[in-house]
TrEMBL record:
Residues 14-110 form the EthD domain. This is EthD domain-containing protein. It comes from Lachnellula cervina. InterPro entries: Dimeric_a/b-barrel (IPR011008), EthD_dom (IPR009799). Belongs to the tpcK family. It comes from the Eukaryota. GO terms for molecular function: oxidoreductase activity.
Amino acid sequence: MAVRVTLLIKKLDTLTDEEFHNYWEGPHAQIFLGVPIVKEKILKNQPQAANRTTFHVDKTTSAALAAQGLPVAEYDGEVNLWAASLEDIMAMYTDPEYQRLVLPDGEVFSKTKESKIMIGYDKDFVANGKVL
């Protein structure tokens, strides 16, 4: 069973939402995907995901929901990574090139000390005994 890591991230206050999202999906993605350990250890869960999926928060809609009293999370995005095992995830995080290139680049656009990580596995949604 594949392991999934979800990382919740906040943008730097000095960046606009557009600058944050453009950097994250552009230069940062290129750095991340260019590190050999990522290509070796991170699985392609979906063909269009290119080893990961990113979720970009819509601030306007989030503000409208918060105004209605809904508990909106105070993050600007999330990234999901899949690997065959926790050991593969840790091999990526501890890889010297990953630490030299990817981690410092995260500081360019995000508040890395305020990021939160969840790790677990995906399970198909089942209703009435059928996988949906």
